[in-house]
Amino acid sequence: MCGIVGYLGEREAYPILIKGLKRLEYRGYDSSGVAIHNNKSIDLFKCKGKVADLEQHVGNSSTTGGVGIGHTRWATHGEPNDVNAHPHFSQSENLVMIHNGIIENYDVIKKQLVSRGYNFKSDTDTEVFVNLIEDIQKSANLKLGEAVRIALKKVVGAYAITIIDKSNPNILIAAKKSSPLVVGVGKGEFFIASDATPIVEYTKNVVYLEDGQIVILKKGKDLKVVNIEDVQQTPYVQELDLQLEELEKGGYDHFMLKEIYEQPRSINDSLRGRLDVRKGAVTLGGIKDYEQKFTNAQRLIIVACGTSWHAGLVGEYLFEELARIPVEVEYASEFRYRNPIVNENDIVLAISQSGETADTLAALELAKGKGATILGICNVVGSTISRLTDAGSYTHAGPEIGVASTKAFTAQVTLLTLMALKIGRKKGTILESRFRLIISALDSIPNQVEQLLETCNDQVKYIADQFKDSRNFLYLGRGVNFPVALEGALKLKEISYIHAEGYPAAEMKHGPIALIDEEMPMVVIATKDASYEKVVSNIQEAKARKGIVIAVVTEGDTQVKEIADYTIEIPATNDLLVPLLATIPLQLLSYHIAVMRGCNVDQPRNLAKSVTVE
Ligand code: G6P
Description:
Helix content is 37%, strand content 23%. It is of the alpha/beta class. Helix 4 (125-140) crosses helix 5 and helix 9 (306-323) packs parallel to helix 13 (407-427). The site of 6-O-phosphono-alpha-D-glucopyranose has 15 residues, from helix 9.
């Protein structure tokens, strides 16, 4: 949540900050701001709205200077307005700070500072934080780095901060705890950002800061990292494997559409080097050392949030069916607060696109503390969760920028399928012939997704046009397609603001059936699998009550076509792999409806892509 960018070097900071903030806008976009040291004083610009609004607000004002910080905000303390936007000055206007996270004891600190004569202009915990640093600095005449370090010992909560100092134009300080921060190390210049995307076009050398680390960047000096106890740290400089083109829209109107269309590639990349149909082998280097542990596991607990939680639910079906391991899928935010029973025989698997979600991270830490083996499926290389876990696998979906997750979901499901197959085979819970059939079907998925994207888009667009003004939607699926129904409903809610619910099709009778009338479109996944006949009955029940049915069916289906109002065909595949195909038209449906309703598809209101606050 919230995006941070910083620059210190010989170039003009402002264009670097603005470009970087645009890359980080997925992290929050209700206000933004920059502060630039012009060698004499600090120019600060901030306003409510998106980074484009900030650019307009800056207009032709002077933005000269080679040291600066920028922020795009997702509000926690204080409503999104010009005053609460970051950066925040200290009282003397000597220090300027931006902050991602929440300071839990800010109220106590604020009262102390008020009693010492400090006034506050905003409602933010950040303004309290920067004044705390100023107060510490002044009271003992300390250097800024030292004052920051002492202040960090006094605050409780999560933070990634950057701070610059009017009286010293050659310094930029940053620190982190529970919120991500990456330092880019160029030739005579440094970059700071919440992730590597604002940095990649200037340098590929980066340092992912660890919790409790403080980085002191000075012009003409080497990178200096200390911990909160003032012990010097040796930074681990690593090379980024990220291409600039991956961060552009590449001719599509929206990142979301680009990412939907990238799925043949992203699923393929997630399979590459892991699936060998000819040899009949699945190889997952990342969890190799934990295969035995998996085989002996009494239980697998999957923790995740949002779309990743839906992927986890698909994983439950896959692992129970193929590897016969009992699976529990938990919302990370619930798991972490309910004193869960976890022990050293359990495997806790976190699924996270960003690898930064605060609740997922905390759930993992809790499980680790209880002795469980903790594994991860993450998309962002080098992310906090990927570094915390004992082992895991990357999804290789490439950067996902649209706030509504699409290609990350199918890549997560791909990985879960590979894992369940691998472990099932090792345990001997899956017949060789079935294993071969599934891996061969899995191998065809990227081409089938490509074919599906070509064939279904116009039809889905037509359906979107019929229902763009609906106020409610119901999504139904059974078995492994129940999570697909949940995911379809979530996509619609997220980007088009239409109320939608996902349900297991048979549960309809226990409540949602009361909602059905001629105004209520129902999206039903009715593919030819083990529950086909049952789903057909569910559709009939809905039709008997005048419900409007949009059914996702297997190519060549005739039965559902006769009763449903609209059908969307997907290619035939193995029952367990249907989610990888059935999800695609649902993503497109929500996309087209959102566009037709004039919604901001890539940056839906109130949401952020990476939720680093609880
Ligand atoms: C936010 C995003 C969702 C995402 C969820 C979990 O809510 O808007 O798209 O599914 O966080 O994020 P993660 O990065 O952990 O998968």
